[in-house]
């Protein structure tokens, strides 16, 4: 158990809908990262938050947004869902993310299926 | 061309065999991760290294920064080692940005 929790584990929804994925980092970790893993693209970095602020953006679509709350949990919002958004979404956390890099610990993932 | 290349893509081994998975990257990095993903989907971080060699149980990871190459070795392989092994690198530019770039993974099957 990495200490990172994600809810829900599975999510099935229809095209055009909006969903919210939630991540709670390990206790004390300030950085949260979101990743998407699809069959054809593999793992891709979406976005990083550090202590409530956006720190880095990767291949995140404009239909997707994220935020990190004062209690450090994070939410990834996916809207106007398309079939191609079906994937595993992972959250990871690390201790800092300021001036030094620390190992990232991954949550169990949320499997999103868009029908 | 992917910045992170892994080989082989698929690997089948008999229980007890010594296994090597390779990772080559084309960018300057400050850290490299080896991750393990089981069939259920969960990802476990095995190693993070920036130089030299690390060992944990039957797993050994090495990195050669000059050659931009890392290897993951599994000694005395066991069926429970069956998983996808993923190499990921953190670039050395962009202070404050710690995004990882991933290889496509090596699927390992260890047969009893």
In N-to-C order, the SSE pattern of chain B is EEEEEEEEEEE
Structural class of chain B: mainly beta
The count of DSSP E runs of length 2 or more, i.e. the number of strands of chain B, is: 11
Largest β-sheet summary of chain A: 7 strands, mixed
Largest interface: A-B, 27 and 25 residues
Which of globular, elongated, flat, extended, rod-shaped describes the shape of chain B? globular
**Strand share of the residues of chain A?**
over 45%
Rg from Cα of chain B: 14 Å
Shape of chain A: globular
Discrete helix count of chain A = 0
Q: What is the count of helical runs of chain B?
A: 0
Task: Give the distance, in angstroms, between the N- and C-terminal Cα atoms of chain B.
Answer: 36 Å
Low-confidence stretches of chain B: none
Give the terminus-to-terminus CA distance of chain A.
31 Å
Considering DSSP H and I runs of 4 or more, what fraction of the residues of chain B is helical?
under 10%
Q: Could you say which structural class the secondary elements and strand pairing of chain A correspond to?
A: mainly beta
Poorly predicted segments of chain A = none
How would you describe what is shown here?
- The complex is a heterodimer of chains A (about 120) and B (about 110).
- By secondary structure, chain A is mainly β.
- Chain A has strands spanning about 5, 10-15, 20-25, 30-40, 40-50, 55, 65-70, 75-80, 85-95, 105, 110-115.
- In chain A, the strands form 2 sheets. In chain A, strands 2, 4, 5, 6, 9, 10 and 11 form a 7-stranded mixed sheet that branches. A 4-stranded antiparallel sheet of chain A has the order 1-3-8-7, with no helix packed on it.
- The termini of chain A are far apart.
- By secondary structure, chain B is an all-beta fold.
- In chain B, strands 2, 4, 5, 9, 10 and 11 form a 6-stranded mixed sheet that branches. In chain B, strands 1-3-8-7-6 form a 5-stranded antiparallel sheet, with no helix packed on it.
- The model of chain B has no long low-confidence stretch (mean pLDDT about 90).
- The chains are: A mainly beta (about 120), B mainly beta (about 110).
- The interface between A and B is medium-sized, with 27 and 25 residues.
